[in-house]
Design a protein that fits this description.
There is one protein chain. This protein is an all-alpha fold. The chain folds into two domains: 1-87, lambda repressor-like DNA-binding domains (434 Repressor (Amino-terminal Domain), Orthogonal Bundle); 88-151, no CATH class. Helices cover 60% and strands 0% of the residues. It is built from seven helices and no strands. The chain has helices spanning 4-20, 27-33, 38-47, 55-61, 90-101, 109-121, 127-150. The protein is globular, with a radius of gyration of 17 Å.
């Protein structure tokens, strides 16, 4: 596995790829995903140092844009549980980020987080179920917003 500045560069390039492919709306949103503030994400890049308990989620989060080789690992060493052939597709990730950035986020943030976590943890054959749940959730939130706008 990469270490130090090389690991920081790997994090930076994974972030850039995620943003370029519109799989994350901003660096701030990526930082929020890891329950930290943007300066801490910058420290990850600058120092190439990440808490050990955050590493599995880091690998999972970026598994849609990079694989084990990007982090200096072989397929056998890959702990993320998402081999390249089972990673969520770019279309699936875009849909879940559409949900995340939709109006639903303003209303029931905890429920939204549960949907996102369920989607990420689901095996590939269950991804459609979680996308359908997310679409339903956004529909309810939009209806709620329209009702509030009328009042």
């Amino acid at each position: 596995m990469l270490k130090g500045k090389e690991f920081g560069e790997a994090i930076k390039s994974a972030i850039d790829m995620k943003l370029q492919r519109n799989l994350a709306p901003s660096k701030a949103e990526i930082a929020r995903h890891f329950n930290m503030k943007p300066p801490s994400l910058s420290d990850w890049v600058k120092k190439g140092s990440v808490a050990k308990d955050k590493l599995p989620e880091l690998w999972r989060y970026f598994s849609d844009v990079v694989g084990p080789a990007h982090w200096g690992m072989t397929e056998d060493e890959w702990p993320a549980g998402l081999p390249a052939d089972q990673s969520p597709s770019a279309d699936q990730k875009k849909e879940i980020y559409r949900v995340r950035n939709g109006k639903a986020q303003k209303f029931v943030h905890e429920d939204e987080e549960l949907l996102i976590k369920g989607y990420r943890a689901a095996p590939p054959d269950a991804k459609k179920f979680w996308l359908d749940q997310a679409r339903h959730y956004v529909g309810i939130a939009e209806a709620f917003q329209k009702r509030n706008d009328k009042q």
